[in-house]
Specification:
The protein has about 400 residues and is of the alpha/beta class. Helix content is about 35%, strand content about 20%.
């Protein structure tokens, strides 16, 4: 991969009132004019993203948001977009004028705490005033790190880097593994990669690339084949593979061609484990048994794309589920960051593999579904359940029993 995907980056959300210097801080830290800076309050309208590398943390994604105190009908829309950023934020940075602190900022701290977010508070414009004493007392009591900056002069950037290193979640220091913890060095994994109309020309899709890299990082070996060549590949290998991983849409054929003594799963199920909560998704898949004709199902896609032909989320899964249930179901599709508030209208949510999401964003969606009392699973699990190979696909993961 030439660049680290967004889903594997530490997401740092920048929040605060209008005109406190959020954009100036981001520009100063990145060394680029990422966001427009103006004395006019409300200059930043939509969230602005900037990907970069911070040593020794690694790849991060800064998200500059509109002022959370915006006004008017348009302001409310901007605020709502800023709130949505919380769902994919790993570290929340609250920026405020040094002398300005009241219930508004305290409520924002409570908001972040409710979401169990690590918090960093930045008192900006400290060339004009010292940080509010009551605020310092509150932050000390809550053990929330803070620092002073003068963003338009570039002061405080080194301090922020150190505080960020001290505050970042543990999983970014010791990230989990897609597949490496399932194999030993030298073992062989076979990856089944169909090449269909929606496969990117000249490339593999992101989950396949990331899985290959994880296998190599684990000093294991992988063989990559299309579904039609799998049987010959397994016959030609001198050593039995420890695992076969397939694209979920080829599950049925790969299940038939893979001997019962070779474990089988899918890329989508691996990413359910890597990005989300495998046990929750497994429980959600079992809820397929309760579906009845006429039920409404939400198909959630992490990225936006133009569906071509037999799209897996819009054509194949609806067809397989309809066949399993024995009657027509109603399907709604939401793409990208578009996730509805009316989840209670649905009998089930079926999510894609989330290769473009960070883990927090997917966990946030799982929590939203749990609050609404709606089962959530993902493509691979829904497919394996509807095709009758669910138990085999989850056999490598005993925690789902």
């Amino acid at each position: 991969m030439q660049t680290t995907p967004k889903g594997l980056r530490l997401h740092i959300g920048i929040f605060g009132r209008r005109n406190v210097g959020k954009s100036s801080f981001l520009n100063a830290f990145t060394g680029q004019e990422v966001s427009i800076v103006s004395d006019v309050a409300g200059t930043t309208t939509d969230p602005v993203e900037k990907a970069m590398e911070i040593l020794p943390i690694g790849p991060v994604l800064f998200i500059d948001t509109a002022g959370i105190d915006d006004v008017g009908a348009l302001g409310e829309m901007r605020i709502e977009k800023s709130r949505k950023v919380i769902e994919r934020t790993d570290v929340a940075v609250l920026i405020t004028d040094a002398a300005e602190w009241d219930d508004f900022e305290t409520e924002m701290l409570d908001w972040f705490a409710t979401e169990k977010l690590p918090i960093i508070v930045i008192f900006n414009k400290t060339d004009l005033a010292e940080p509010n004493a009551n605020a310092i007392k509150l932050l000390t009591e809550r053990k929330i790190p803070w620092l002073k900056t003068v963003a338009n002069q570039g002061l405080g950037q080194t301090d922020f880097r150190q505080v960020l290193i001290d505050t970042m979640p543990d999983e970014f220091i010791a990230p989990g593994s897609i597949i490496g913890d399932l194999v030993q060095p030298g073992e062989v994994i076979v990856l089944v990669v169909p090449i269909d109309l929606e496969a990117p020309k000249g490339r593999l899709i992101l989950p396949q690339v990331q899985t290959i890299r994880d296998i190599l990082d684990s000093d294991a070996c992988c063989a990559v084949v299309k579904e039609r060549e799998l049987r010959d590949m397994l016959g030609n290998l001198k050593r039995k593979p420890v695992l076969v991983v397939t694209d979920s849409q080829a599950f049925l054929k790969v299940d038939g061609d893979t001997p019962p003594d070779i474990p089988l799963t899918s890329f989508s199920i691996l990413f359910a484990r890597f990005k989300g909560d495998l046990a929750s998704f497994a429980a959600g898949a079992r809820a397929i048994e309760t579906l009845k004709p006429g039920d409404k199902i939400l198909m959630a896609e992490g990225c936006t794309h133009h569906p071509i032909g037999e799209d897996i989320g819009r054509v194949k899964i609806p067809r397989w589920l309809t066949q399993y249930v024995g009657g027509k179901l109603e399907f709604d599709t939401h793409s990208g960051r578009d996730f509805p508030d009316n989840l209670s209208e649905y009998k089930m949510v079926i999510h894609c593999g989330s290769c473009t999401f960070n883990r927090r964003q997917l966990l946030s969606r799982i929590m939203q579904c749990n609050k609404a009392g709606v089962p959530i699973t993902n493509y691979g699990m829904a497919i394996s359940y509807s095709l009758g190979i669910f138990d085999r696909a989850l056999a490598p993961f005993p925690e789902t029993e």
